[in-house]
Design a protein that fits this description.
- The model has no long low-confidence stretch (mean pLDDT 80).
- This protein has one helix and eleven strands.
- Strand 2 and strand 3 (33-37) form a beta hairpin.
- The longest helix has 4 residues, at 137-140.
- Strands 1-2-3-4 form a four-stranded antiparallel β-sheet, with no helix packed on it.
- The chain is rod-shaped and about 90 Å long.
- It is mainly β and 142 residues long.
- 3% of the residues lie in helices and 34% in strands.
């Protein structure tokens, strides 16, 4: 499918009539193209081929303003800040093998399972000793 090219308007005319709103790119009736009719708008894709939107400004129902744009690398920016998909949802389960580099901070405790499926609560006491306590099924419900 070949892409249409927007005609160059050199002697263009526009008109409003019983047919709607129309444009004649070369100024003759032969090139008449109706853009707006009573049944709606009749644009072609090439009418927007050079449309550039550096950003979109949106307003929430309560009046908060947001600007959505992209940086030079194509990363999504919201109010100028690079968007990072959230991965810290409450009660989230992440599956698969993971490799972490750098420091990882855990707050609220660590639970590990042995190969038999037994659950262990892992803590560190004030002397820096690692302590693993086997939990019962009753403790899991809390």
């Amino acid at each position: 499918m070949s892409q249409q090219v927007r005609p160059t308007i050199t002697n263009g005319k526009t008109g409003v009539g019983s047919f709607g709103v129309a444009v004649m790119p070369d100024g003759t009736a032969d090139s008449l193209r109706t853009l707006i009719k009573p049944d709606g708008f009749h644009f072609e894709a090439y009418d927007f081929d050079d449309l550039m939107l550096p950003s979109l400004k949106l307003r929430s129902p309560i009046g908060s303003k947001y600007t959505i744009s992209f940086d030079d690398d194509g990363a999504l920016l919201i109010n100028g800040v690079k968007y990072t998909a959230p991965t810290n949802q409450s009660n989230e389960t992440i599956k698969g093998n993971k490799t972490y580099e750098g420091t990882t901070t855990l707050k609220g405790g660590l639970i590990l399972y042995d190969t038999s499926g037994n659950r262990y609560s892992v803590n560190i006491n004030v002397d820096g000793q690692l302590i693993a306590n086997k939990e019962t099924n009753q403790q899991w419900k809390n």
